[in-house]
Amino acid sequence: MQLYKDQHLRIHNSLSGQKQLFEPINEGHVGMYVCGPTVYSNVHLGNCRTFMSFDMIFRYLKHLGYKVRYVRNITDAGHLENDADEGEDKIAKKAKLEQIEPMEVVQRYTVDFHNTIQKLNLLPPSIEPTATGHIIEQIEIIKEIIEKGIAYEVNGSVYFDVVKFNEDHDYGKLSGRKLEDMITNTRELTAQDEKRNPQDFALWKKAEPQHIMRWPSPWGDGFPGWHLECTAMSTKYLGETFDIHGGGMDLKFPHHECEIAQAEASTGKSPVKYWLHANMLTLNGKKMSKSTDNNIYPAEIFSGDNNILSKPYTPAVVRFFMMQAHYTSILDLSDDALLASEKGYHRLMDALDNVDNLPTSSSSDFDVAAWKQKCYDAMNDDFNSPILIAQLFDAVKNINLIKEGKSSITEADKNELSTTMKAFVYDVLGIENQSLANDDSAALNGVMELLIQIRNEARANKDFATSDKIRDELNALGIQIKDGKDGTTFSLN
Known about the structure:
The chain starts with 9 loop residues before the first strand and ends with a strand. Helix 4 (135-147) packs across helix 7, helix 10 packs across helix 11 (335-354) and helix 16 runs antiparallel to helix 17 (464-476). 45% of the residues lie in helices and 14% in strands. It has helices at residues 45-63, 90-98, 102-119, 135-147, 162-166, 179-184, 226-238, 252-267, 298-303, 315-323, 335-354, 368-380, 385-403, 411-428, 434-437, 441-460, 464-476, and strands at residues 10-13, 18-21, 29-34, 67-72, 151-154, 157-160, 201-206, 222-224, 242-248, 272-278, 281-283, 286-287, 331-333, 479-484, 487-492. Strand 11 and strand 12 (286-287) form a beta hairpin.
């Protein structure tokens, strides 16, 4: 179904600073590129949030009926320790520390990345290219930029001439920075500096004798600059101009700014129509940092093996927690926030488990069609997942009222409600129903049936102390007993 013809999606474009109607370059097709991980350590939770945000965006675009080519790269070379083109390659440094080959580092942490995001139920991208697999393409782009007179070679390294580029272009338009201000606020070059201007950035770096990762080039053995790889891979698979480029807010400058400059210098075209940036994740109100021990990895949340949280949380609860904030907002992770999300998650899943078994009648008290459009309105407003979740819980409230006999719904509306809820929860938000996936659910149901039977027998014998004890003990475990006209049921809080 081509829902996109009836649903008018507006997205916040970082380039214009405004929400704009989404109109892909080619009708019905979307090209989306997202900066992937640098695989030199275990993927951290902040990165997971960024990738999860764009997974949700990918899912919604597909739900609307677009044919999406989603490219998310793996950075396996060229990412130096700082943005001033200084220091060691992060992967090579890790390889030296562990006394293994750089590609062993890459393999180990690429596997960790894939295992982690699979647990969080992220869909695989259409293409997942690597920087090292596109060295030739990067060299060709450098040649083009040199020919245009916007790059220069010094001692085997090649630098992008930002000042020269800015004569006919606007370097800083994505981040809102002015080159004149950047020049004023930077140190002067020393005699040892190879760059003509402090703002210039490396397209190719000469590999010193001790540098492990190196490739031959027209300028000698070396390795590509970090910014260049994304330009090479995005344009190869999506074209010189494509629809969406995404990444974390921290990449806006200098990484994405440099991508724009490289593409415009080599092709003469603006590479991206809509720039999208996801915001950061904090922990207990503070920036995540290994040095201050205010840090937690996804595996530590799932296992409970940490000194920060009171208990383990499932990947589905973590994903539900993250979907409750807009992707452009800062989100703070805490034990209280996860506990609240866990309760909300179980309420939502309980409603999904019950929706198909609701009793029906000749009329509906719940306007399902109007509610359904409100769900779309939320997502059409720059993928507003928290507003969508609020609408889903409005449906949960109505499902519970219908289940308790306090409201009514027709068979047709019930089917529409069920289909829409499952589409938005499972397909768009990507939240798995663990009660369906859990192999232990049948055992739990059997135990609960036995406890409910014992409790009912106790009540029949007027042994209210025993019946109340069963109810209260189960409630303390997060299982709520509900007595209704059709018998006793239970739900997970």
